[in-house]
Amino acid sequence: MKNNIMLILAGFLLLVSTMTNIEAGIKVPGTIIGTGTKALLGGDLTDPEDDGAPEEDTNYNAKFTSSDEPGFGGGEFAFNVFDNILGPGNDKWCCGKGDIGDGEGMHITAELEAPHLLTHFTLSSANDVPDRDPTTWEVQGSNDGEKFTTIFSYDGDNLFTDRLQVIRFDAGEDFDAQTTGYRFFRHITFKTANWPNGAFFQIGEIEYFGTPADDTAVDPRSKLATQWGILKNSQ
Fold first, then answer.
1. What's the CATH number where 41 sits?
2. pLDDT score for 185
3. What is the DSSP letter of 216?
4. Measuring CA to CA, how many Å separate 202 from each of 136, 147, 185, 191, 227?
5. Residue 16 burial (CB count, 10 A)
6. Is residue 153 situated within a structural domain?
7. Inter-residue contact 227 to 211 (CB < 8 Å)
8. What is the total count of domains within the chain?
9. What is the pLDDT of residue 75?
10. Rounded to an integer, what distance in angstroms lies between the CA atom of residue 112 and that of residue 110?
């Protein structure tokens, strides 16, 4: 009887150990590619030529809207996530309005001229307070700016391990390979470690990359945007 109990206990411990190893082996989404402005891929769909002028809001290949603090500069406003710079102050979006309800979220949208299939994107942390980093968030697509489809979603521990850190997410690996092109791409933050004690969050930068949904009308700027990061990092 004693031997049977010992065997059962040993089997239970083995099962727990196996489950722990499986859990430890689960790959979290995204690949950390560096920190600071130099780690950004550059040439994304919102600014393929990397010549956007955030102070004037000119030379961008997208129109931007947000649920709060629309604009560049001005006090850590929302559009700073598309200024191609990682840093403090007006190089980030922080910190959102208070009393955000469960499921409401803080969002920023980039509207392109034509639909694109999202191939990869980057999300970057800002310079301070890790508890403001998004922990429940999504990237969504739309063609009318009203009805959005979830492309990528995450709900878990903070993915960032450093400040001003750039994480890349790839279709076919971190989210489903896309078969539908979208004109609107929206990032929405639902929760941070600070929620619900205020909607205190921050994002350093967002970059979207993709291919035109209509292969018969390839925009050279979009083609550049898709390959820019590879060419840039190979030099």
1. 2.60.120.260
2. 98
3. T
4. 13, 25, 18, 11, 28
5. 10
6. yes
7. no
8. 1
9. 85
10. 6
Q: Which domain holds residue 180?
A: 29-234
Separation of alpha carbons 72 and 205, rounded Å = 12
Q: What is the mean pLDDT of each run of 10 residues along the chain (235 residues)?
A: 44 38 64 98 97 94 95 92 95 86 90 98 96 97 97 97 98 98 97 86 97 64 43 40
State the DSSP H helix or E strand holding residue 95, giving kind and residue range, or none if neither: strand 93-95
- CA quadruple 145, 147, 150, 151: dihedral sign: negative
Q: What is the DSSP string of 177-208?
A: PP-S-EEEEEEEEEEETTTTSS--EEE-EEEE
Q: Does a structural domain hold residue 20? A: no
Q: Answer whether residue 147 is part of any domain.
A: yes
In a domain, 11, yes or no: no
Tell me the β-bridge partners of 165: 35
Q: List the one residue out of 85, 3, 1, 89 whose CA is nearest residue 38.
A: 85
Global confidence as pTM = 0.81
Q: 209-225 b/e with 16+ CB inside 10 Å = b? A: bbbbbeeeeebeebeeb
